[in-house]
Amino acid sequence: RVIEVLKREHALVALKKIVHSYAHCWRTKTPLIYRATPQWFISMTQNGLLDSALDAVGKVQWIPDWGQARIELMLKGSPDWCVSRQRNWGVPIPFFLNKETNELHPRTPELVEEVAKRVEQSGIEAWFQLDPAELLGDEAKNYRKLSDTLDVWFDSGTTHWHVMRGSHANEHDFPADLYLEGSDQHRGWFQSSLLTGCALDGRAPYKALLTHGFVVDGKGRKMSKSVGNVIYPQEVADKMGAEILRLWVANTDYSGELTISDEILKRVVEGYRRIRNTLRFLLANTEDFNPATDSVPVSEMLEIDRYAIEMVRTLQASVQADYDRYDFHRIVQSLQNFCSEDLGAFYLDILKDRLYTTAPGSLARRSAQTALWLITQTMLRLMAPILAFTTEEVWTLMARKIAHAPESIMLSDAEVLPVVADAAALGDKWSRIRSIRADVARAMEMVRGEGGIGSSLQAEVIITAPADDAAALRSLGDDLKFVFISSAAEVRDGAALEIHVTPSAQPKCERCWHQRDSVGKDIAHPTWCDRCVANVDGEGEKRVYA
After folding, report:
1. How far is residue 411's CA from residue 118's CA, in Å, rounded to a whole number?
2. End-to-end CA distance of the chain
3. How high is the pLDDT of residue 30?
4. Burial annotation 13-51 (CB, 10 A radius, 16+ → b, else e)
5. What is the pLDDT of residues 69-112, one digit of tens each?
6. Bridge partner list, 80
7. Quick count: other Cβ atoms within 10 Å of Cβ 432?
């Protein structure tokens, strides 16, 4: 319309259209008109507020550490702090200004206190409904009541005073252990909390500050209703369960953008199933185990069980350190790898024979169950902050076996694992054996692919190895075959590692599926091998290592 008037009055010198993104409302996508208004500022240089803030920044733990440089840059680029806003809602700035000079009333501190008393009694509307004459008397005709409100970041930035040390002082310590929010809050809540903290106490109100990125879709686009790419947390929880949502959050590196999509959630479900299935196995195989009466002293446990305790001790130390650093995605990866690699592909795979074929109360089986019990107890406590529902579900089953067990897993202390003698040497030895075992598995797979064997128990293995490797393998004695899950295993000395896999010619035991020459030699059990006969009717086989 302005242009139309200019044209009509022949006063338009020139007209040119340009395309630009400024200024418009990012939410409504409509143009904006800026207007100049007076604002209220807190000086950053007067009384040394900026210096105090920069000093406090250096004493805070920043997670990720780039957050420190980000907030320092913002502080140095802001000589003054604008705290006023022209809104019809919020906490008022209760000032009276001279109508002619715009100067504050000389009794401003006293008047602010009077307004605060009224707000305390009647709420924030007490200011907006206040007639200036109630406080100023005859002076009211010379003053106007300011309609500006405080920046909302000033409200939230002072919660360390009016919440942590005010309304909820009995629930909080000061300073806070951690402030947590998105990266945009370096300009908002993080900064306003820092500045008000330095003004009031000469320090930041937090010991550590954690910054996370924003949730985006699978293509890296910001979630937007107008685009239609929003994934709602409640819908995920309703469809897949809250544990999946919690696991996705923990498994995502929050230092950058957090990507979510249906495909990503499906992978999270797979990871969750791996953990849950591991817990099911551990529960099932400790069902008849009473830790008070059936536990085996660590010095009497089989060697691989002692090694398993050291594996979970390493996991425990790693995860606890990651919790201290808030590296949740590393925790999830460690737990999933432990379930799939250390347990599923190694320890539990070897353990099945001993759990299923040895006598129920034998040392061999009770040693395994002792290790499984300790592993389960440790894993539950490590998982609990992330998989709260799952661990609570398992705890209700296991706590019945624990004297004076706390009502919830959340109230239990960290599991104290028994000390394993010569742990370092044990770890080195079994790391070497695990490496060779992986080579044996690949050799078996090649023979299986050629149709030579079906299951690994149909195979016999001959390993030629250098002295150190050969010594580690021979130290397991006859238990070596259980580590390889083969029916027989032999070690020979040689210059390099060589693995020879052949199908076993021995008959198959109906009970344990091992192929042994002793099958058919017991009249009472003609389809069993000698060790199964001993495990059922005799004193049981002697297992020392695996």
Report:
1. 44
2. 90
3. 85
4. eeeeeeeeeeeeeeeeeeeeeeeeeeebeeebeeeebbe
5. 999 999 998 889 999 999 888 899 999 999 999 999 999 999 99
6. 43
7. 16
Mean pLDDT of all residues in 478-501: 96
Amino acid code (one letter) for 521: K
Contact call for residues 364 and 539 (beta carbons, < 8 A): no
SS3 string of 449-462? HCCCCCCHHHEEEE
Tally Cβ neighbours within 10 Å of residue 401: 15
Torsion-angle region of 326 (φ positive above 0: left; ψ -120 to 50: alpha; else: beta): left
At residue 126's C-alpha, the angle toward residues 124 and 130, to 5°, is 140
Count of CA atoms in the C-beta half-sphere (13 A) of 327: 13
CB 159 within 8 A of CB 145: no
Confidence class of residue 270 from pLDDT cuts 50, 70 and 90?
very high
Residue type, 294: D
- Distances, alpha carbon 342 to alpha carbons 148, 278, 377, 420, 534, in Å: 63, 11, 16, 18, 30
Reported as a pLDDT band with limits 50, 70 and 90, residue 33 is confident
Mean pLDDT of 19-45: 84
Residues 6+ apart with CB under 8 A from 93: 40, 83, 84, 146, 148, 149, 150
Q: Give the integer Cα–Cα distance in Å for 491 and 469.
A: 10
Q: What is the token pair recorded at 541?
A: 């086989």
Neighbours of 74 (CB within 10 A): 13
**What is the distance of C-alpha 218 from the center of its chain?**
21
Q: Please, what's the largest Cα pairwise distance for the chain? A: 121
Q: What predicted TM-score, i.e. pTM, was given to this entire model?
A: 0.82
The rounded distance, in Å, linking the Cα atoms of 272 and 390 is 10
